[in-house]
Amino acid sequence: MCKGSAVAAPVYVLDSKFDEDEFLKDIKVAQRAVGNAGEADARHLQRLVLITRLATVLGYMLLVVAALQPFGLGLTLVCGTIAASAISLARVMSWTIIGHHISHGGYDKVHNLAPGVLPSQYKRGIFALGLLRRCLDWLDWMLPQAWDVEHNKLHHYHLSEDKDPDLVERNFAMLHKLPLPLFMKYISMVFWIFTWKFTYYSPGTFKELQLSKPKSWLSQNWPVNRSKKDPVTLPELLIALPLVSLAKMRPKEFLYWIVFNTMWFLSVAPMMAVVLLPASLPLAMGSLNAWPFTALPWTVAMRALAVGLVAEAFTNAHSFVIIACNHAGPDLYRYSTPCKPYSAEWYLRCAYSSSNFECGTELVDILYGWLNYQAEHHMFPDMTPLQYRKLQPLIKSVFAKHGAMYVQDNGLRRTWKMLQVAVGAKSMKRCTSLLTPRDGGESVLRWLRASGRDGPQVSEIMTLIGG
Asked: What is d(CA 75, CA 152) in angstroms, rounded to the nearest whole number?
């Protein structure tokens, strides 16, 4: 198998007789059959927004009940668990369904085809941008503009290439190398499952946002000793990177990580305030002698904090299961070469490096955050959730017709497969590309040069594809 080396023989997955022209034609037919998004899609989004708001209100009302504990311990635990679950579900939906699809432009056409049905903020370039809109529309640990760079641009257009910032196998390479028993590596993943948005994804997306600004200080002064492809996690930011800089007498690098940490902390401060607010209010009111309840403010604050932290743990675990395993597993592929967007190779990679889950009903789709249509979403990222539900059986039939791989699995089973890759127990499949270049790679060469990537890197890529 190809390991990404320029001297390795090229490896192609599909037979050279694969009819990519007919495949492309069938994909486009499926896309057109779905039709444009319209008023039904707008009404559906409004229902989803309403569900998230109701879940949020319910969650915080029950959080207050659990914190004040006017009933017995048993009922308090029930209220606290339901509160944490409702807050968690609202946060997952706000990210994976509402923020996700709006930031991809899924509802942009709706504003033209069904004017006035949706509020103006439900549009790419407006939704959640700026502090006020972020707090009103979609407040999470990730900056919406950082998510746009990391996910919408880099991940979607470099899926399972080395440039993909979400490449699990590469991002956990350090864990593979640690001299620990395998079961200890699996146990270590529990930490990431319950904290990953704050400790892994937020600093990672923030890094990609800064590196996307070539004139910014953080971009221009990125430490030369660290690859820009390496993930940046919270334990590294707070401990490892500053300490290593000091130990190796690199004061400029130490200063860099202090500045990076400060700027990242400011970006997550609004979300941190939301998590801590329920616990802060009783303490503040108590200090002002304005606390009206018999329960001690400190006790109520600790209960509120506990429910808030459990809600965070729930939303991290929920989103981890429906997001982190979408593109990782020993049955999925990673590539040593790029490909042209919206080519036959590109559409194939959307399925060969993605896993769908069960789908088709409102409850199942909401619980999966509408990420259970992963292959179709990567093929056409600017569709609405309802469009994906219509598109999925059509795309699945196209892949069956052409004898191509289409993975659809259970979310928990996919999580186990992803964990096997994360700890190094198993590896993803490697190849140069899925299709054998029909013209010796000339079309890829022309695309690389047209996109400004001429030079030694192009020569290496052409060697890999056998051109």
From this structure: 43
Angle at CA 223, nearest 5°, toward 218 and 226?
Answer: 120
Provide the domain count of the chain: 2
Among the listed residues 357, 382, 381, 387, the one whose alpha carbon sits nearest the alpha carbon of residue 371:
357
Q: What is the pLDDT along the chain (467 residues), one digit of tens a residue?
A: 344 444 467 899 998 899 999 999 999 999 999 999 999 999 999 999 999 999 999 999 999 999 998 777 888 899 999 999 999 999 999 999 999 999 999 999 999 888 889 999 999 999 999 999 999 999 999 999 999 999 999 999 999 999 999 999 999 999 999 999 999 999 999 999 999 999 999 999 999 999 999 999 999 999 998 999 889 999 999 999 999 999 999 999 999 999 999 999 999 999 999 999 999 999 999 999 999 998 899 999 999 999 999 999 999 999 999 999 999 999 999 999 999 999 999 999 999 999 999 999 999 999 999 999 999 999 999 999 999 999 999 999 999 999 999 999 999 999 999 999 999 999 999 999 999 987 655 555 555 565 555 555 555 555 555 55
**Residues 369 and 318 grouped into a single domain:** no
Query: In 199-250, which residue ranges form alpha helices assigned H by DSSP?
Result: 202-211, 217-220, 234-235, 241-247
Of 324, 339, 372, the residue that ends a domain is 324
Helical segments of 248-296, H only: 251-287
16 by Cβ neighbours in 10 Å (0-12 / 13-18 / 19+) ranks as exposed
Which domain, by its residues, includes 356? Answer: 20-34+331-464
Structure tokens at 339: 């490909």
Same-domain check for residues 219 and 298: yes
Give every CB contact of residue 284 below 8 A, 6+ residues apart in sequence: none
| Beta-bridge partners for 408 | 356
Is residue 8 in some structural domain? no
Cα 161 from Cα 337, distance rounded (Å)? 7
Q: How far apart are CA 86 and CA 93, in angstroms?
A: 11
Please answer whether residues 432 and 465 qualify as being in contact, where contact means their C-beta atoms are separated by less than 8 angstroms. yes
